[in-house]
Amino acid sequence: MYFSLITRSVFCLLILYTANALAVNTGMDDEEALLNLYGGEEMISLATGNSKPISRAPAIATVITAEDIKEIGATDLDQVLETVPGLHVARNPSGYNPIYTFRGIFSQFNPQVLMLINGIPITNLFFGNRHQIWGGMPVQSIARVEVIRGPGSAIYGADAFAGVINIITKTKEDIGGTEIGGRAGSFNSWNGWALHGDNWGGFDVAVMLEYGDTDGQRRIINADAQTFFDSQFGTEASLAPGPVNLQRENIDARLDISREHWRLRAGLQRRSNFGTGAGVAQALDPNGRFASNRWNVDLTYHNPTFFSENWDVMAQASYFNTSQEVEHDVRLFPPGADFNSSPGIDFPQGVIGNPEVFERHARFKTSAFYTGFERHQIRVGAGMRYGDLYDVKEVKNYEFDFKTGLPRPLGGLRDVTGNLSQVFLRERDRKNYYAFLQDVWNFANDWEFTAGVRYDHFSDFGDTINPRLALVWATRYDLTTKLLYGRAFRAPSFAELFNINNPVAIGNPNLDPETIETVELAFDYRPTNALHLALSLFHYRWDDIIQFVPDPGTSVNVAKNAGKQKGLGLELEADWALTSTFHLLGNYAFQHSTDEKTGKNAGYAPQHQIYLRGSWEFLPHWRLTPQLNWVIDRARPAGDNRPAINNYSIFDLTLRRTAIKKHWEAAFSVRNLFDNDAREPSPAGNPSALIPNDLPLSGRSFFGEIRFRF
């Protein structure tokens, strides 16, 4: 039985007090302590737009560097994000897409998290998330990852709701020469990369290319949606028990060119041969394949002394184009599926639906810092975004029966593109204009007050205003206290607004945005350069949650602002360099979230998380890094009567050898060393979950890596 939240908070504060007493006894003077404290602290710009030490930033933030990523042997961004306190990576059955669950805020398509690449959103209009054909993100081009837990709409606008993830790619300075490398391992996986950073003709240039191919883990789904329909209609079509379909091929290419005040960046994320996971309709589909091309380019002008030394001006234009394409027929239900009690099989080839979506996004923004006022740093900015879901295509062999809620045959594959009585989504666009104002006020020694507000106008649902307040107190040279308030919103996705003829859910053009208000209290304590402790407590209220609810008199689920949720919790972090060769890092997160409609636990998200990592240089140039991720107490939502999902712990181990003949480096990793049966919750269903035994994660796997620098 676990302690109450109050008991945990008191215990954590006692830890901070004890560490403080130990620091006082060291006899360190303030000047020496400050040099030790800030000499090695990570800086972050995600919280205000201007770089500051994490401990003084008006947000609860985490920074993960390229060295951290390499140390843990991560091969994908999801493995990196699982180390962040209060953030858990769950899975969607379709494609096993990641659900970045911040502080108990969970939804199947996860639009409540804003992901940025170099400060620019990669949100799509269709589902409001990163992409349905996400396919992971390799890590060799990443210089650092900045994460804010909590709202960020006062700076970043829509979807900076539960948290913000900013991926900063490498520049010429980060690469400093040429690196080539490769990795191979379990599931017939292999990756290769080449990075180069140099000065060409007066320009700083960085070029990055990564390629990956995998069959994916093949854990078994024991029963699926078709298993349920077989029991109802007397068929035997289900492919369960059978493996998940997680194969994919990735190409990631990036270019970074800068000179003086200008920087040009461009990138391609190509996903092909993308498997359907546990099936787009939660029925196994071993042959369906998707593809996606995600292109981006941005041009930034930044002059820290534009008019005078008091003006820091930035302007940026960017373009992003993304697609969801079908490479091989996607089957919602397998061959032999039949939803009619009459003799004969309606779908001898299976229920086939091939949805394709094409989007383009153009953005322009400008902002300026003014420091000419005593004790004030003013930031003002404005911008616009034009998003266009410009093409929707669909080939399918079924239509949706709104009376029964089941598919019925069309008499073969038909191209229904442009047919509003058949196609699954309308083509639409969205315009967003915004302006923001922020003041950082040093109103007294050791006190800083940040106030910000952003106004957004959307062409499809109107206006929204989102403020934030932050009081940061340098309580003493080694302790910072923060009190934070923020309001954020999440714009309805086009699937929620404009879905039509969809067998799962129908859109509603009259939706309001979701909103959240969060209050946080945080302590950051650094008694020595070797020890860092942090504690944050939070409470949030989430309103106007968009849910697909039954439409009275039909079998259809329609999007409505139908939900409310509240939550509270804490996150405790510790980072301790015991010696020059041995380092410990860990965090513990607790959250309790309540669905206010039912009064029950909101479900899905872990109530407790524990992460531990050690780093031991046991010989010169030899480093051993074990890590443990323990996920505890995931409740089922109200109405889901399955037994509680089992806890799991995953232990990984990475051994790395550097400076082999100066230029070579090698590493070996084993993930889930003890081959634990780890599972993420599958969606609840009515009358029962379509995948009753949840979504199995990878078992024990091995990876070897080698890289060469010159």
From TrEMBL:
UniProt KW Signal keyword: yes
Segments forming domain TonB-dependent receptor plug: 55-164
Annotated TonB-dependent receptor-like beta-barrel domain residues: 273-673
Bilayer disposition of the protein: Multi-pass membrane protein
Record keywords, A-Z: Cell outer membrane, Membrane, Receptor, Signal, TonB box, Transmembrane, Transmembrane beta strand, Transport
GO MF entry, a single one: siderophore uptake transmembrane transporter activity
Record's subcellular location: Cell outer membrane
Signal peptide annotation: 1-23
Family annotation (SUPFAM superfamilies): Porins
Alphabetized PROSITE patterns for the sequence: TONB_DEPENDENT_REC_3
Protein name, per record: TonB-dependent receptor plug
Organism: Nitrosococcus watsoni (strain C-113)
